[in-house]
Specification:
This protein is an alpha+beta fold and 194 residues long. 44% of the residues lie in helices and 18% in strands. The two termini are 33 Å apart.
Length: 194
């Protein structure tokens, strides 16, 4: 199973790098000789392997960096799943908005992690960390806990906002009820921090 997950992750990372470099290449009208290469580095020790895929495809703007981990978010313009090649034919390259989130999920499932470090207007490093352990078991991805925590934080913000609104209109009974709900959400959030 691990090779198929690893293949998916690597294909997704390389596909994103190739697309970014190609779009940057077109935007600046670079000749083929001037297109910067995608650099892949692999390093390891006795316990881990890390792969670094680096491209100079323009990077990800700071305000969009968190969105790349959201399902159904895509930077692809036009029809999902197709990119026009120079010959005018569609190729299955991008646009569904599941590639990076699913890649991170797979990496965590096989005991690793996937991280992006992007510099806007320059390029992106994608780091894939994997354990070197043949007896390792699959793990529950931290993304699931992160998502639960995010939903709790959103719920807390909503309850706090409604509580303030209730105080403003002097509905103190409702404000007190919402204060109790906020305390319950705070308690659930504490469980994430042990």
């Amino acid at each position: 199973l691990v090779p198929s997950y690893l293949m998916y992750i690597l294909m997704e990372l390389l596909k994103n790098s190739v697309r970014a470099v190609a779009e940057q290449h077109r935007a600046f009208g670079l000749t083929s000789a001037a297109v910067p290469p995608i650099v892949i580095r692999v390093a390891s020790d006795d316990s881990q392997v890390v792969m670094d895929i680096f491209d100079r495809g323009g990077g990800i703007p700071f305000e969009l960096q968190e969105k790349v981990w959201s399902y159904m978010y895509s930077t692809r313009r036009g029809n999902p799943g197709t990119v026009q090649s120079d010959a005018g034919e569609a190729t299955p390259l991008a646009g569904f908005g599941v590639g990076l989130p699913l890649s991170r999920l797979y990496a965590e499932y096989i005991g690793g992690s996937l991280q992006l470090v992007s510099m806007p207007n320059f390029g992106t490093h994608a780091f894939l960390f994997l354990e070197r352990c043949s007896s390792c078991k699959e793990g529950m991805p931290t993304y699931v806990n992160w998502l639960r925590k995010r939903h709790l934080l959103e719920e807390l913000l909503d309850v706090e906002s409604r509580k303030r609104a209730a105080v403003e209109i002097e509905d103190y009974a409702e404000a007190l009820r919402l204060k109790g709900l906020a305390a319950e959400v705070h308690q659930k959030l504490k469980e994430f921090h042990g």
